[in-house]
């Protein structure tokens, strides 16, 4: 599912200020309130966009305590047969999100756009924050900021 957090048109809060108050607990509360609302048919207007990011994960993995994966030789015996020439030297993560008239595609998973707006129209015509999450566990899988509708 995709959750769009659209600041009020009359709000003086910027996206960074919005993110300061939108912590994990607040996001969980929004998702809980949405799941308790009665479904409503809403016209949603969201700009088409694609967001793609690549990350080098070695520093992150080392910071998480996985330094030995990058030793020479690495102890990967729980994954492969012992071979002194095997070790990791690079780990990349690439994420791509596409939003178009057919819905949202995040990596290899296709997800639909959902909304619990109070009015029958939800026009996303200014910068917003988006979250793509797994509905049953409410686990955020992707998040981003769209600045130029």
From TrEMBL:
One of its GO terms (cellular component) is extracellular space. It comes from the Eukaryota. Residues 2-149 form the Serpin domain. GO terms for molecular function: serine-type endopeptidase inhibitor activity. It holds the Pfam family Serpin. Belongs to the serpin family. This is Serpin domain-containing protein. The lineage of its organism: Eukaryota, Metazoa, Ecdysozoa, Arthropoda, Hexapoda.
